[in-house]
């Protein structure tokens, strides 16, 4: 048809699929100028090209299809300025959120890379800065199933409340259980986070002297690493004064092979 474009031609010019045009037609966002009653073929006029350009540009800017549809129904310069200013605020918030995610993911990546490549095998005694943990208690009988459920509660809360997390989970094991050689009966699961005063179940690990050891491989064999770290503290006149805190450095998020898993075990200690 003269001065008309088929759906296939228009899709090719705009580098979109015919299915996109069909969907836009279905929701009343962008409908063909003419539909052949014999075969149902859709045709678009040359005047509609700029209209489709506007839709695609607004979609690229980040407007939803419903927002675009509402805007196109009252398409004036004044309304466009208002809509664009509002979208600038949305984009600014997304940039800030992505920047935070980028820095936290970079931190996680550096942790994994450093621990995986250096293969720390000896305990490390160091001053540790404040660490904030979003936690949920582990239910009895404190098996891996209950630990997994508590961890998922942490992730669900973080996502629901848009809390800042560093993509790192862990557990704490009471010192009493450690002394009874019940090394994998964690009482709390946690995610590392930042201080959020309005959230009650965020705890702060204070700045202080810590002794730590990296456990490599199967988590069920972590007893050997605990024994090594506890013996190191005894040999170096260090008194363990806290529960243990286990941080998953390399886990199911980054590898499906248990032999590649890395868990950092940490106690607060005092010199005797």
Summarize the structure.
The protein is 43% helix and 25% strand.
Describe the protein's architecture and organization.
This protein is an alpha+beta fold. The chain has eight helices and twelve strands. Strands 4, 5, 6, 7, 8, 9, 10, 11 and 12 form a nine-stranded antiparallel sheet that branches. α1 (7-14) crosses α2. The longest helix has 42 residues, at 77-118. The protein is elongated and about 90 Å long. The termini are far apart.
Overall SS class: alpha+beta
Q: Which percent bin holds the helix content?
A: 40-55%
If helices are DSSP runs of H or I spanning 4 or more residues, what is the number of helices? 8
User: Could you give the count of β-strands?
Assistant: 12
Based on CA inertia axes, which overall geometry fits? elongated
**What is the succession of H and E elements?**
EHHEEHHHEEHEHEEEHEEE
Strand content range = 25-35%
Span between N and C termini? Answer: 92 Å
In terms of per-residue confidence, which ranges show pLDDT below 50 for 5 or more consecutive residues?
none
Radius of gyration: 28 Å
Largest sheet: 9 strands, antiparallel
Average pLDDT across residues?
Answer: 93
């Amino acid at each position: 048809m003269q001065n008309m474009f088929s759906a296939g031609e228009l899709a090719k010019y705009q580098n979109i699929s015919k299915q996109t045009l069909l969907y836009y037609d279905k929701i009343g966002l962008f409908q063909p100028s003419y539909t052949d009653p014999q075969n149902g073929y859709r045709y678009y006029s040359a005047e509609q090209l700029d209209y489709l350009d506007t839709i695609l540009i607004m979609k690229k800017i980040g407007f939803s299809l419903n927002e675009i549809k509402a805007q196109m129904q009252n398409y004036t310069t004044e309304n466009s300025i208002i809509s664009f200013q509002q979208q600038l605020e949305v984009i600014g918030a997304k940039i800030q959120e992505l920047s935070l995610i980028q820095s936290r993911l970079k931190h996680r990546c550096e942790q994994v890379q450093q621990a995986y490549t250096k293969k720390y095998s000896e305990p490390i005694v160091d001053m540790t800065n404040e660490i904030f943990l979003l936690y949920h208690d582990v239910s009895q009988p404190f098996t891996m199933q209950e630990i997994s459920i508590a961890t998922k509660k942490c992730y669900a809360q973080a996502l629901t409340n848009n809390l800042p997390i560093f993509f790192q989970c862990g557990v704490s094991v009471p010192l009493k259980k450690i002394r009874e050689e019940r090394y994998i009966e964690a009482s709390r699961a946690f995610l590392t986070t930042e201080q959020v005063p309005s959230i009650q179940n965020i705890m702060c690990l204070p700045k202080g002297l810590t002794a730590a050891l990296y456990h490599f491989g199967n988590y069920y064999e972590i007893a050997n690493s605990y024994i090594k770290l506890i013996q190191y503290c005894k040999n170096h006149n260090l008194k363990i004064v806290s529960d243990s805190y286990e941080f998953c450095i390399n886990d199911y998020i980054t590898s499906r092979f248990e032999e590649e898993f890395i868990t950092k075990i940490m106690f607060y200690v005092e010199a005797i």
